[in-house]
Design goal:
Blueprint: E1 3-7, H1 19-32, E2 37-41, H2 53-59, E3 66-71, H3 80-91, E4 98-100, H4 102-105, H5 115-124, E5 128-130, H6 148-156, E6 162-164, H7 172-181, E7 185-188, H8 199-216, E8 223-224, H9 234-250, H10 255-270
Parallel strand pairs: 1-2, 2-3, 3-4, 4-5, 5-6, 6-7, 7-8
């Protein structure tokens, strides 16, 4: 079984296709690669390229294998009502977690403006996914994306389930230390490459992921499978998904550890 814990229905490049068509593309690729569920992260903006939570709720209403993660522009001065809406969606179990985008919206994860989101996640016992590492395009500044600021949040809130997105790449060593010293922190491996893993990138990330696993020296491998890929380019998404699965299967770890990465950690953290 495989759960893609980091997927999008946004369009980052290429032709803009209707949202329903993106859903169908995703479902076909999931079936081809034997992915049982995908967690859809709502985008940081709202446009034809970045569907809103409301649009995603409509298109995913009858899709039990496509589960939604909510978000809000935390730096907006008028986000009070948005946060209230997220609370209702969490209470009604229409979303199963929340996502923050520090490197895109110019805030640090340990900033007090994040507290309402962390409060919601603790109240409903759902994870917060925090974008960390490289941003697509220039973003608002790489300093906001450094995983080191997540450590303070994890220490202050030991009951908050935190997922560092993208392994904090390229600050993987920082992520590695944070995972090891905080029981409540995990990381996903989505978005490490843009198209698919070639020979060089496959070997490079094999080494980096094994370094994280060995450093944490824990039977419970604290990583989640993810692709971070939208269905705007079906061929490259299919190639990427297959290469991601191949990468995890190539790791020199036990079958049980691979199952933790592929689905068990996601099942436990998101209660699915």
């Amino acid at each position: 079984m495989v759960i893609d814990a980091h997927a999008h229905l946004s369009v980052f490049s290429g032709k803009l296709i209707p949202l329903k068509e993106r859903v169908e593309n995703l479902k076909r690729i999931m079936q081809k690669n034997k992915i049982s569920k995908s967690l859809i992260l709502s985008g940081m903006e709202e446009s034809a390229y970045y569907p809103s939570i409301k649009e995603l709720l409509v298109v995913l209403k009858n899709e039990p294998n496509l589960l939604l993660i909510g978000t809000v522009n935390i730096t907006s001065p008028n986000n009070y009502n948005k946060i209230k809406e997220l609370r209702i969606l969490l209470k009604e179990k229409k979303i199963i977690g929340l996502k923050l985008y520090p490197g895109y919206q110019a805030f640090y994860p340990n900033d007090k403006i994040c507290e309402p989101i962390y409060d919601l996640c603790e109240e409903f016992n759902v994870p917060v996914i925090i974008h960390s590492g490289e941003t697509f395009g220039k973003g608002k500044g790489m300093r906001y994306s450094k995983p080191e600021y997540i450590d303070e949040v994890a220490i202050k809130r030991p009951n908050l389930k935190i997922i560092i997105a993208h392994l904090g790449n390229p600050w993987i060593n920082d992520t590695m230390v944070i995972l090891n010293r905080n029981k409540n922190v995990y990381a996903d491996i989505g978005g490490l490459v843009w198209n698919s893993f070639d020979g060089f990138w496959s070997k490079y990330y094999q080494h980096e992921i094994m370094k994280v696993i060995n450093w944490c020296h824990d039977k419970n491998v604290k990583l989640l499978f993810g692709t971070d890929w939208p269905c705007c380019d079906t061929s490259s998404y299919n190639s990427l998904t297959g290469s991601y699965i191949k990468l995890v299967n190539s790791l020199k770890i036990s079958k049980e550890s691979k199952e933790q990465i592929f689905h068990k950690n996601a099942e436990r953290l998101f209660k699915i």
